[in-house]
Amino acid sequence: MVEPPSILVEELVKRFGSFTAVDRVSFRIAGGEIFGLLGPNGSGKSTIIRMLCGLLTPTAGRASVVGFNVAKEPEEVRRHIGYMSQKFSLYDDLRVIENLEFFAGLYGVKGTLFKERIGWALEMAGLKGSEALLTGELAGGWKQRLALGCAVLHRPRVVFLDEPTAGVDPLSRRRFWELIHQMSADGVTVLVTTHYMDEAEYCNRLALIDAGRIVAGGSPSEIKRTAIRGDLLLVECAPLGRGLELIKRQPGVLDAAVFGAALHVVVTAAERARIELAAALASAGVEASRIEPIAPSLEDAFVALTGGHPGGSERAQ
Amino acid sequence: MNWRRTVAIGRKEFIQVRRDPRSLLIAVLLPLIQILLLGYGARLDADHIPVYVYDQEASQNSQALLKHFQASRYFDVIKVVDNYPALVRAIDADRCKLGVIIPWDFSRRLDDAHRTQVQALVDGTDDNSAQLAVGYAQAVVGAYSDDIQLQWFALKGISQQATQPLSVDYRTWFNEELESKNFIIPGTIALVMALMGALLSSLTIAREWERGTMEQLIATPATATEIMMGKLLPYFVIGLFDAALCTAFAVGWFAVPFRGSLGTLFFTTGLFLVVILGIGYMISVATKSQLGASQYALLVTLLPTSMLSGFAFPIDQMPAPIRAITYVVYSRYYVSALKGIFLAGSGVRDLAPEIAAMAVYAGVIVFFATRAFRKSLR
User: Fold this and answer.
1) What residues does each domain of chain A span?
2) A7-221 architecture in CATH?
3) In whole angstroms, what separates CA B141 from the centre of its chain?
4) What is the pLDDT of residue B360?
5) B207/B339 same-domain check
6) How many domains does chain B have?
7) Are residues B188 and B120 in the same domain?
8) Do B200 and B349 reside in the same domain of the chain?
9) Which residues of B touch A158 (CB under 8 A)?
10) Does some domain include residue B224?
11) Residue A313: is its pLDDT beyond 60?
12) Are B7 and A93 a contacting pair at CB < 8 A?
């Protein structure tokens, strides 16, 4: 028997007036899976999550979460999910413990479980002993772990995390992902949106989203393998701009783009192109300090699929 | 409806009020300021009216009349001047409200004809005070006149019993001293409820939208009704507390009689609060901004309550079209109930019409309020 999907999305559409924010998106997520929606700001990731939480009504298509239709049974859906919205949204003027007690009350956590779950959340967030602090006084990483704690007090079967680590330092992000993996190991399904490439690597499966459409899907390694047709070369040269112009005109070059202080060049065959490019650059007076084949990253895949960077101008490493 | 969730929301809301200086101010300090301000400031009766006197005669008789003015608690004789222009200037400059002119032939005419006159100049810019001043002046002069008559009869050897052929012995009920504070202060509680209730409840939903916490709240299983009930519960309790506070001040500080029962007071106050909080809540849902919501809320609650409820301006004296409008002003029923409870000792049965009207209002408001908020982002 095949286990029913934890989240099922079929041909989901959301329009705001004449603007189509989500355009016929479909995916299915199994129980315990960590599924990532990767795409730039404004690509429709948050709109998808909001529809799945019953906060927005889909224009067309259907979606179900743990078997409940999100448009018809939003209250049932909300009972089984935890949601962390994009903006930090706990009450700043409440103490840490008061926020936890508030959400525990809303989610109907009671009896011995009330104390137990709150204690667990404090432990998880690293806030034991800081119960009396005002939430507004916490630093980003603690706030975000507290928000996660509040969202999962009732042991939901599905957790939605919308850009959970935006504006959080790298160490805290790492700790946060360890928590997500723990939850996943306990059988909790996690749907997370991000525009950080390194975070996307933590997911079991990904959907790359651009302008409301899914442009690619699969595990991070599958996406990297299939998105780029050809080999990838890293070229360090000076001046960079002239080198890029020159390389783009070379035969055997499929694509070239600036990545940080270097160029990523997609070629039909790495070994041949290496020699040809070195010669071409040298004859044009462009000094090439390094030309070597590299393994494609998710970002390369994203650039190849959409022609843009998922993080926009603020590029992730 | 799940009580656990409702109480969780109520507790959270209460903590937030307690921690927000602005809300705390509205909840506790504002009612006190209002009742003190209106208790002292909005008196319609006048005493210690400043008086200038131009005594042309300066005789024993004129001095005797002056003493009557000085002895009255309604008047303060500030200055005796010796020319007419000085008196006029004093009135123009608002140094006095009443000018009394005792003519140079005051005593002579009294002796010759047993009739004489004094002139009173009144500042009529405030017609209420002017009427009161004239009335009090007539009473003072009348008392002096009686004195003279008694002396005159005594001189002629006529018995004192014969001096008053007819007099009206009247008795005022409910506000025996006819003090306007007794009339105004009970109604002030309606004003306090309207201001406090509307302001605080109009902020609740708007605050969640403005701080970005609404999205998280909607994503929980709490229903719209639970959110409404939970959010308004603390303000209902604060409202009853404020009503008790104001009543304590009215009775303990301003010595307003309280002849009804606290039960009736809290029951009618509860009904009124349901109406006020419901209105504030719906406005908060509709505007989504704290500033806008509080302004609308004041417009639809405080304004009609202060102008059209009969709190200070008697409805009977309003022109017919305005009087007709007051029937839809929910606060008039509460103000009427408050005055009945404080001054006449009215119970629930006496106030049945007022209670029925407020109950209808409360029912309608609750019906719409529970449908006002949709758990959706758009």
Assistant:
1) 7-221, 229-295
2) 3-Layer(aba) Sandwich (3.40)
3) 31
4) 95
5) yes
6) 2
7) no
8) yes
9) none
10) yes
11) no
12) no
CB contact under 8 A, A105 and B20: no
Mean pLDDT in residue range A293-300 = 87
Q: Does residue B189 share a domain with residue B157? A: no
Look at residue A296 in the predicted model and tell me its pLDDT: 87
- CA quadruple B236, B240, B245, B251: dihedral, nearest 10: 150
Residue where a domain stops, chosen among B116, B133, B163:
B163
- At B315 the pLDDT is 84
* A19-23, A120-124, A136-140, B147-151, range with the lowest pLDDT: B147-151
Determine the pLDDT at residue B252.
93
- pLDDT for B197 equals 92
Q: What is the interface pTM, i.e. ipTM, of the complex?
A: 0.82
A101 to chain B, any CB pair closer than 8 A? The answer is yes
User: What local confidence, expressed as pLDDT, does residue A93 receive?
Assistant: 93
CA distance A116 to chain B (A): 18
| Residue A9 to chain B, least CA–CA distance (Å) | 19
* Nearest CB to A83; choose among B20, B213, B219: B219
User: In chain B, what residues touch A88 (CB-CB under 8 Å)?
Assistant: 212
Average pLDDT over residues A246-253: 89
Q: B322 and B239 in contact (C-beta within 8 Å)? A: no
Establish if A46 touches chain B: CB-CB under 8 angstroms. no
**Residue ranges in chain B whose pLDDT is less than 50:** none
Q: Which residue of B has its CA nearest to A73?
A: B221
In a domain, B233, yes or no: yes
**Contact flag A105-B213 (C-beta cutoff 8 Å):** no
Residues B292 and B216 in one domain: yes
SS3 A299: helix
- Residue A106: which of B19, B215, B221 has the nearest Cβ? B221
Structure tokens at A78: 């909300």
Residue B139 CB contacts under 8 Å (≥ 6 apart), including other chains: none
Domain around B335: 3-42+179-372
Tell me yes or no: is domain A229-295 CATH 3.40.50.10420: no
Smallest CA–CA distance from B374 into chain A, residue: A55
Which chain B positions have a beta carbon within 8 Å of A16's beta carbon? 378
SS3 content of chain A, % helix, strand, coil (to 5): 35, 30, 35
> Residue A275: pLDDT above 60?
yes
Confidence of residue A172 (pLDDT cuts 50, 70, 90): confident
B222 shares contact with chain A (CB less than 8 Å): yes
Whole-number CA gyration radius for chain B = 28
Q: In chain A, what residues touch B213 (CB-CB under 8 Å)?
A: 89-91
pLDDT of residue A314: 39
Angle at A281 between CA A279 and CA A287, to 5 degrees: 115
Tokens of A136: 């507004």
